[in-house]
Hints:
Blueprint: H1 2-18, E1 22-28, H2 38-41, E2 46-52, H3 71-75, E3 83-89, H4 95-101, H5 104-121, E4 125-129, H6 151-169, E5 176-182, H7 196-202, E6 205-209, H8 227-239, E7 247-252, E8 254-259, E9 288-292, H9 295-298, E10 306-307, E11 319-320, E12 326-327, E13 333-334, H10 337-340, H11 356-365, E14 368-370, E15 375-380, E16 385-389, H12 392-404, E17 410-414, H13 424-439
Parallel strand pairs: 1-2, 1-17, 2-3, 3-4, 4-5, 5-6, 6-7, 7-17, 10-11
Antiparallel strand pairs: 8-9, 8-16, 12-13, 14-15, 15-16
Helix pairs in contact: 5-6, 6-7, 8-12, 12-13
Keywords: Chitin-binding, Disulfide bond, Hydrolase, Signal
Enzyme class: hydrolase
GO biological process, one term: carbohydrate metabolic process
Amino acid sequence: MRSLVLACLASLAAAAATHKPRYVLYFDQYHTASLPNKTVTAGITHVITAFAQSSLFTTDPPGDYEPFMNLTAVRAMFDPGTKVCMAIGGWGDTAGFSKGAATDASRKLFAKNVAATVSRLGYDCVDVDWEYPGGNGDDYRQNPNSNKTSEIETFPLLLAEIKQAVVTKCRDRDVELSIAVPGLERDMIAYTAKQVPKIDKVVDFVNVMAYDLMNRRDNVTNHHTSLTGSLAAVDTYISRGMSAHKMNLGFAFYAKWFTTAKGVTCDHPIGCPTEVLEAADGSDTGKSGAMTFEASSFAGVPANLVDSPDGSCGAGTNYRCPNNACCGQYGFCGTETGHCGTGCQSGFGRCDGPSTKDSFFKALANAKYDSANGGEWYWDATTDLFWTWDTPEIITRKFQEIVVKRALGGAFAWSLAEDSHDWSRLLAMQANVKKLSQSHY
Ligand SMILES: *[C@@H]1O[C@H](CO)[C@@H](O)[C@H](O)[C@H]1NC(C)=O
Ligand SMILES: *[C@@H]1O[C@H](CO)[C@@H](O)[C@H](O)[C@H]1NC(C)=O
Ligand SMILES: *[C@@H]1O[C@H](CO)[C@@H](O)[C@H](O)[C@H]1NC(C)=O
Ligand SMILES: *[C@@H]1O[C@H](CO)[C@@H](O)[C@H](O)[C@H]1NC(C)=O
């Protein structure tokens, strides 16, 4: 009787502990110019450095991964005890995963290599960011989904090998395994009702990328990270067998823009026809893009510009493009439409298209709120640009109407320093996580 009572108390304690919400931030190598202080990062439970290339783990011995910032320096930015995780993959990095997942031997090698790297660098956890098993990744026109059907079966097997390998290798600590999963049902190819329970069983948590819900493969406008779109993503996973408490709801610290079709008046956020945003070969037509909420997106052009020595340019640098070249939205000099057209950074070189930055400020100043769907948007009639983004107020609604209502395990965002303009999104997440921890939801 006595031991039964004790056992029950122990399990109650365990249940309470699992209710501490996860608060996870990706920390990516492309955004390190302006970093938050420890007041701003307080409460974060996991930080995930991004990215290690998947192909590093397919060779014997593995490739030599070094994080972009040493982990001592990373840890110093957060509360003591914050877990630091290694993300593998990211958009466009699928080949190494495909190779690693293929056979029993390749899965074991991949897992052994991941465990060795996690152990060597002293990571606390590992995040598999394969976009996406089963297809619809960046390479879907070159390597069609029909060539990836086996990944639907092998993905959970690869995850199980990785979890087993890291736990065996790092006996001193409980190394968690997480995955980042697509927000659009059309991309959930490997997340079928048959496979999800197997995936759910082996992972510790799941980051639901409830953003980019409109992307260049669409031909009409939509919110990219609305409340309704995010809820639909979560509910699809739940209906296929994912445990709610393992899921973290994803937030994006960037706005997206899309060029609407000529002659269209877009006075509503959903369903305006766009220009062709993705070419038949799967490449970007340069008619859509993103603008982060980082400090450099709001800064003026520096006075002391010099000619770029290495082809990089634009916000966050002092480099302009020489030889009348254009500085494209991703910070590289060139003369293609992708550099000179919409998204081009005026002030850092020639531009042939409209200034996205001016349009961004116009959108922020004249923002419209779609309360029914929980999305902020604006259509700029001068440039034909449709804007879609998330505000601190909508973040709070998503916590109440998704994280709490569905009893999710927590929340995460891409990415830490993309909010450096005023940290308002990060601070909204911090406040909401704090409220969650106090409410014992
Ligand atoms: C930390 O950063 C925030 C936001 O920039 C600022 O308001 C605050 O004063 C800073 N705190 C410290 C202790 O520097
Ligand atoms: C890590 O980075 C910090 C800060 O940049 C530096 O002081 C320290 O020496 C580095 N540690 C190692 C092991 O490289
Ligand atoms: C099909 O998949 C295999 C195995 O991953 C790969 O080696 C091959 O290159 C792929 N085919 C195409 C057309 O990319
Ligand atoms: C727009 O996209 C839908 C769904 O992907 C597709 O069925 C339709 O053919 C597309 N329309 C045009 C005009 O490309």
